[in-house]
Specification:
2 copies of one chain form a homodimer. The first copy, chain A, has 8 helices and 14 strands. The first copy, chain A, is an alpha/beta fold. Chain A folds into 2 domains: 177 residues, Dihydroxyacetone kinase, domain 1 (Rossmann fold), CATH 3.40.50; 140 residues, Hypothetical Protein Tm841, Chain: A,domain 3 (2-Layer Sandwich), CATH 3.30.1180.20. A 6-stranded mixed sheet of chain A has the order 1-2-4-3-5-6, with helices on both faces. At the A-B interface, helix 1, helix 6, helix 7, strand 11 and strand 14 of A face helix 1, helix 6, helix 7, strand 11 and strand 14 of B. Chains A, B: One of its GO terms (biological process) is glycerol catabolic process.
Chain lengths: 334, 334
């Protein structure tokens, strides 16, 4: 195992300490164990607060989206493990500005169970909580079971739109409604070429042959929908965008999209652009306009080699909210 | 070779096309082969223009630093190969706003030779050109040969300060002077855990044992100063920062620095923060204040696993210039 680590048991602690030391003007820890981080100016009065949480090992997910114009707080789990109810509740209390809290998190059983319990406890304290659960991964379940799909990189769009809407002074119901709209309009699918290694385990979390790829693999190495010989970048790009469009087209018209090409950890930035090129041409040929593009690392899986593509079907409201500025430790938009 | 590519001969073309398609509001191509990119609003009148260039395979280097508040143009070579004199000259002509052009590039023989020739040719056309050659890599040559050192990730600071100074309306001589100050005040050193694979070659560019690391390795796999068993993150962090400080302390006092922890391609973001944590504590213990931190991918080597650390010794002038905003396809500062 070749990693820049000390004792694997200290990995999350040391990572969190580094992030806090590097971002003293952006982030604040609200727990002695640093398992809850909030915006430096939290709670923001008279604004709906947006909260997320999830396991470590996916930076910039989840805590990396806390910041101005973005999330108010994140609760932080161990590597690939959900955070606790208490951590979620602590973050909820720390960010509530009197207008309620929206939980936005990925559809994984541990996260769902704990966020639901945290929401109940917060309500007993008089904090109104609503939730939107990201389910963008078309590779994780067929269309007829889309409620059971996992959340992956497309959650970035839920974060962005929810946070922007909250910043406009909208109510909790209004913020939830537009976030649900995003949830219905964003789809993702990934492809993996090599596994990752959890520091505490010390060996790869799955195996892929020397010339193999797996389409639809999840960000924890969950099985995908097709394993086969690695294709050309163009063929891979096309198969991913076709899978997303087929799924989206079944219930909505698509004229203009935002595209996110996300590296899973070890994929060179150059290759993400090679793939984006083909996606752009494919969309153009279908008469679909590309409004705004995000390319880089948005939701990783430690050093996994691979990428995911997300498309968000846009309308005028979403375009305006997508354009609003934000500033986080990993990404800034003016 | 597991890569998202098509024909390896098309790798740079397709990457450039993807970058241009993704950044229509930021970048403009000035050559049919896209081997010269400039700011969308170039030439900027009455401003010294800053130009760089170099081989592909190092994104965000080199072209990724073209943008508002940053570089005016970049000439683009094949993977790990210098760009041509003609490409450099074309970029120079396209960005000259009447106040002259500063070339800022890394100390590699092909780049030096071609930029020197391009400067001569530009001068014959009446464009005044000055140059600053980045030599920040303390791992590449001992102190007594520091003029022969290679340029690595520390060139980010030369770009940032040169561009900010030019944006203030300073003259070519003033911009060159402050860029030389940065060149004398920034030092870097890298450590590699695994090699990269050039698309056209198809196999790793060097070999490292299963438990080995190499301190001081360059971003093209140039030999470093020490190969050995991989150490803990803390020990590696300390040895890198000590090597830099020993070199810097020989000719200047150090009270406040900016730190850049740069991933070489495959290193998880989490690990960069684990390493930063130790660097921060080491500097603090030495009474050195950290002013501003940059952590992420700033100068890569395709999918090489490794990282580099750069320290810039700051004074008030450099702090002010470092804080000025910029917007590029890969990094934005408000």
């Amino acid at each position: 195992m070749k990693k820049f680590i000390n004792d694997p048991d200290d990995f999350v602690d040391e990572m969190l300490e580094g992030i806090l030391l590097a971002n003293p003007n952006h982030l604040r820890s609200i727990r002695d164990d640093n398992r809850g981080l909030v915006r430096i100016d939290a709670p923001v009065k008279n604004k709906v607060a947006i909260v997320t949480g999830g396991g470590s090992g996916h930076l910039p997910l989840f805590l990396g989206y806390v910041g101005k114009g973005m999330l108010d707080g994140a609760s932080v789990g161990e590597v690939f493990a959900a955070s606790s109810v208490q951590q979620m509740l602590d973050v909820t209390r720390a960010v509530d500005g009197g207008e309620g809290v929206l939980y936005v998190y990925g559809n994984y059983s541990g996260d769902v169970m704990n966020f639901e319990m945290a929401a109940e406890l917060a309500e007993t304290e008089g904090i109104r909580v609503e939730s939107v659960v990201a389910r963008d991964d078309v590779g994780s379940m067929p269309k007829e079971f889309e409620d059971q799909r996992r959340g992956v990189a497309g959650i970035f769009y839920l974060y962005k739109i929810a946070s922007a809407k909250a910043a406009t002074g909208a109510s909790l119901d209004e913020v939830k409604a537009v976030t649900e709209k995003v949830n219905n309009s964003v789809r993702s699918i990934g492809v993996a070429l090599s596994p990752c290694i959890l520091p505490s385990v010390g060996k790869p979390n799955f195996k892929l042959g020397e010339d193999e790829m797996e389409i639809g693999m999840g960000i924890h190495g969950e099985p995908g929908i097709k394993r086969g010989k690695i294709d050309s970048a163009d063929k891979i790009a096309e198969s991913l965008v076709v899978a997303i469009l087929e799924d989206l087209y079944t219930n909505q018209e698509i004229k203009e999209v935002s595209v996110l090409v996300n590296g899973l950890g070890s994929t060179p930035l150059e290759e993400l652009y090679v793939v984006y090129r083909k996606i752009h041409h494919h969309l153009e040929n279908k008469g679909i306009k590309v409004y705004k593009v995000f390319i880089g690392e948005y939701a990783t899986s430690l050093e996994m080699t691979g990428l995911s593509v997300s498309l968000l079907n846009l309308d005028e409201e979403l375009k305006d909210l997508l354009d609003m500025p934000f500033e986080t430790p990993f990404h800034v938009q003016q």
